[in-house]
Amino acid sequence: MDTPRKRDPWWLAAAEGEISEKAARASGPGGQHVNKTSTAIELRFDVRGSPSVPEDVKARLETLAGSRLTLDGVLVLFAQEHRSQEMNRQAARERLMDLLRQAAVRPRTRRPTRPTLASKLKRLDGKTRRAGVKGLRGRPGHED
């Protein structure tokens, strides 16, 4: 990633230095080119061992990462969508930064609310109407 975004947290740039990358052979179509060049990038980021990422962000990142997280707490991203190694490197880094940005957002705490009197009356009125409709569906009684 070339330039950090204006609203990115301060630790996001520090996390950039903790990334390890390895080039690998990409799969899929491409003929001889894909068989002799290592254009795919395997990016690794140690989530649990990162000193720059705050603990609450680490916890959210682990849940966001899902199956991309190893048992040791290392996030592994594999990029092979482009034909050039540099574009795959940028794509993998951008995906990691997007995950870190998502993890940096604190979820809002839910405040329990109580239903209003109008909503309670509306619900009870709907139940009464529905019961009346269903009551008319039965066999006629002795009164009819």
The CATH architecture name of the domain at 11-104 reads: 2-Layer Sandwich
Strand fraction:
5-15%
Largest sheet: 3 strands, antiparallel
Helical amount: 40-55%
CA-atom Rg in angstroms? 28 Å
Q: Indicate the structural class.
A: alpha+beta
The parts where pLDDT drops under 50 for at least 5 residues are: none
- CATH class assignment of the domain at 11-104: Alpha Beta
Can you describe this structure?
With 144 residues, the protein is α+β, with helices and mostly antiparallel strands. The protein has a domain at 11-104: Double Stranded RNA Binding Domain. The chain is 42% helix and 13% strand. It has helices at residues 11-16, 32-36, 55-65, 85-104, 117-135, and strands at residues 19-24, 40-46, 74-79. A 3-stranded antiparallel beta sheet has the order 1-2-3, covered by helices on one side. Helix 3 crosses helix 4. The protein is elongated. The N and C termini lie far apart (80 Å). The mean pLDDT is 85.
What keywords describe this structure?
three-stranded antiparallel beta sheet, 144 residues, Double Stranded RNA Binding Domain, alpha+beta
